[in-house]
Amino acid sequence: MTTATLLVSCPDQKGLVAKISDWVFSHGGNILHADQHADSTAGLFLMRVEWELDTFDLAKAEIAPTFEKLATEIYAKWNIQFSDYVRRIAIFVSKQDHCLYDLILRQRSHELSAVIPVVISNHPDLEKVAHNFGINYHHIAIAAENKREQEHQQLAILKQYKIDLVVLAKYMQVLSPDFLTRFPQVINIHHSFLPAFAGANPYHRAYKRGVKIIGATAHYVTDELDEGPIIEQDVIRVSHRDSVVDLIRKGKDLERIVLARAVRQHLQNRVLVYGQSADSGLGLRTVVFD
Amino acid sequence: MTTATLLVSCPDQKGLVAKISDWVFSHGGNILHADQHADSTAGLFLMRVEWELDTFDLAKAEIAPTFEKLATEIYAKWNIQFSDYVRRIAIFVSKQDHCLYDLILRQRSHELSAVIPVVISNHPDLEKVAHNFGINYHHIAIAAENKREQEHQQLAILKQYKIDLVVLAKYMQVLSPDFLTRFPQVINIHHSFLPAFAGANPYHRAYKRGVKIIGATAHYVTDELDEGPIIEQDVIRVSHRDSVVDLIRKGKDLERIVLARAVRQHLQNRVLVYGQSADSGLGLRTVVFD
Amino acid sequence: MTTATLLVSCPDQKGLVAKISDWVFSHGGNILHADQHADSTAGLFLMRVEWELDTFDLAKAEIAPTFEKLATEIYAKWNIQFSDYVRRIAIFVSKQDHCLYDLILRQRSHELSAVIPVVISNHPDLEKVAHNFGINYHHIAIAAENKREQEHQQLAILKQYKIDLVVLAKYMQVLSPDFLTRFPQVINIHHSFLPAFAGANPYHRAYKRGVKIIGATAHYVTDELDEGPIIEQDVIRVSHRDSVVDLIRKGKDLERIVLARAVRQHLQNRVLVYGQSADSGLGLRTVVFD
Amino acid sequence: MTTATLLVSCPDQKGLVAKISDWVFSHGGNILHADQHADSTAGLFLMRVEWELDTFDLAKAEIAPTFEKLATEIYAKWNIQFSDYVRRIAIFVSKQDHCLYDLILRQRSHELSAVIPVVISNHPDLEKVAHNFGINYHHIAIAAENKREQEHQQLAILKQYKIDLVVLAKYMQVLSPDFLTRFPQVINIHHSFLPAFAGANPYHRAYKRGVKIIGATAHYVTDELDEGPIIEQDVIRVSHRDSVVDLIRKGKDLERIVLARAVRQHLQNRVLVYGQSADSGLGLRTVVFD
């Protein structure tokens, strides 16, 4: 069964649920899931609708142009995804393999509906892991003086493999604003409970502060380091018995799970980013339609 | 702002989201929240819609009769609640006061949109607590030989106070099927993670089994003890350092929070009970539209 | 059964567990609990020992002077508490009553082994709550220009009631360094997962940042705002459906539980503060012997 | 640094902490960790002591015979492990690979201090996974009529590889009492929050019951199915949105983490099994010295 999923955000007004579900129904679509949210601070209406395409009277190519009319009427930002389009993920790694293995194994066991044709790394260490699973591996070392060129090479690879989503699976480099302008769809896992311990060495700093709980945060990457919209977070209890090494070990379980959940939600078109309003003081934030 | 909330369950079919949201919209209602769920095992569609009444073109008294037409068409079970109707709760207790205090204080701080005109107990102990907050207290002792009559007296009190919901806040008596037939709207807190440790003395049994986590469960009461549809559960970690007394103490925090969440969800018309199908083997279960 | 509890911290060296438990045993004490921790970063050994006094061959008044000899030998900081000494708590509040009720009710149900003779507030609002439970209430308004004098009055009250511990139960004022020098034993509840959202309005800032989990932190108060050693933290999941009002409501449950746990651990002499070493970069931190 | 770890259980009496730590100290051992617990229901004292061997005046071979004298005096059950002895694990699997991968990867990243020389399965499916990591794989199909012989073959393999611990990593067969008599050191992961949903198909039964939280339990295997002493449990929240397939997916994360924690605790000699007393009604239970 093929489905279409529509994500919409627009200024809140009366009748939007009815208007949008009506549009689907009037074209013969059977709504499987519909969820919406009104953010009164931002004055926005946000909706996710998923419907069966079998009985829909519009061909795939006609759907977007046809919806455009309603979208214009309600001043909406929107996008539509089809369930039979298999997204293509590039995983960026450095030396740690736990998130890489985790994503690959989840993809292999059909938890993640996507393909992973390529792994890109600033180190050669994890080539064997990628190759074991038949995935291409590109080693692109990054230094301060060649970062610009190396990122161009990374972008060329993303183009070559027709990548839809980059996942930073413990990639210990900061992507430049230029990279993000050219390829904005990037999910990162940060090994702290943001906004606590943004930046380098979060586990060491958590240890020094003597916290009783540590966390991990998956977020979309923006120009401001560790300030991107949060998709998912989770935590685990620690105690004085845990050294920094223990925090790192416990954190690895969090990183795996939090990153995998975020990627899965993204692949199912459940994440809608909005916000960034000077008036309300809101930062970029997400609705995760679960 | 007054709102109406509609809870619907009916056999699943195409176009239900559009039909129902259209019905609201066509009468001038602005949908604030709409959420739905399709249970494929039970073959059911379940929906919750909340809309503003200010601009609705039907008077309150006309809403149910008017919706009845659509309901019949889609073979729906349904009910409608209005946000300006303040529900009336009777709390049943025995000797423990922690859930009683908790519910009263939440009601006082506007977390629970309801009034609590009466507390009923099989013991005299908590009369002072009720009176401190200006709540009437009825002591109705229960013995095997007078249970029937005493329940009749309880039912008379529920009628006298026009009670909509009974909350068993650590009431250590089992309500008879006869009571439940006459007054079916009852929420109970059970001090275990059901279905583990149904029945008596769950903390003692949890201790003896050596579990590493204990729980609490809020559920609607049915004729089968501890088998009613679950509204909410939560857990807390325990260790060998915890004696039975510690389990009881930790459990009290769970009981308070789990019961309060369930009552709050119920009062906001977020809980829809369905299931009980011999074919699918499903028991009675809930959708909690959060 | 009366017990003594010894908390010791000293430079780590060989044989400390044996030395200390031997000292107890050689005086006829039966050790009920012994736990220790070595912090290799700080180079410290930390221990908690609790033993029965019935068979101990030293009178209470002799214990400290006698232990002093061993303590000097191992360069220890230490203190001893007796289980039959009932500690005296002053609760500081502003306008919110949830933590105040919670602490009083736990004290009444014997979860907290202490007495609460007095509540001090910068507002008159909660006087009735205190009086309901037979607790004295002192309203001491605080303004920028009279803070010094008002704190002197607070300190006089603490002296008058022979207070051992001050608990800031949502007291919306900052205690001055002068106050803390004169009365250092103060536990505070901060309504965020520190170090995230230290300072004012944590729930509003958490909302604006779009976090998926919120927390609360109980800590000893030091001169640096929200930087004191953490005793306990806990968290709860939130979503886009939660407004700031919902965060505040959910947070209240966290605040209650986290503060109560910290106070209980403190009253059982389970919390040992150490750290603050320029060399290691460690901040003040706690061992909580559970 | 090589250490020895002693686990002791004996009838509770005065002076045990001092006696045992004295014994270590008198032989020149530096205690790194000491933790103990008194179970008043069972009347037992349980202790774990870990000390450095470098300065110990007994050779490894002399330690047990020397301690025997003290052990007899206090009627103790006990065992001693040395940190430089690397334990040998056999993993039993059926068709699911997630726990197998997880244990292997944790072993590779030094989270589990052990070697895994062999995987045994009643199915051929996971041979490639084992071989990828250079681990031998034995396929031993099990049918009702050949179970006895096949178990004998399994036992022969355990002997051949000098296995110390068997981990059932989603092995969908029940080990016979005979197997367990010959090889009692077996850890299993059960995919429910025991004692809820013991036996077959826990996720399906959890779905039918409509629980709001699911769990996983790691325990030592005994003759009574799913009744062995619990080492570790954890849970995750589910909702009406989760189908059985979702429960299985979410449960896999729990299974991985709970099993890995239990195996790790076991390998660090942190788990002491005791209990099974007809008088107290206690079942077999664990102290996990963390």
Mind explaining what this structure looks like?
4 copies of one chain form a homotetramer. The first copy, chain A, folds into 2 domains: 3-84, Alpha-Beta Plaits (2-Layer Sandwich), CATH 3.30.70; 87-267, Formyl transferase, N-terminal domain (Rossmann fold). Chain A has 8 helices and 13 strands. Chain A has helices spanning 16-26, 60-73, 98-108, 127-132, 147-160, 177-182, 202-209, 244-267, and strands spanning 3-11, 30-39, 44-52, 77-82, 87-93, 114-121, 136-139, 165-168, 186-190, 213-220, 230-237, 271-277, 282-288. Chain A has a 7-stranded mixed beta sheet with strand order 7-6-5-8-9-10-11. A 4-stranded antiparallel beta sheet of chain A has the order 2-3-1-4, covered by helices on one side. A two-stranded antiparallel sheet of chain A has the order 12-13. The two termini of chain A are 20 Å apart. The mean pLDDT of chain A is 95. Chains in contact: A-B, A-C, A-D, B-C, B-D, C-D.
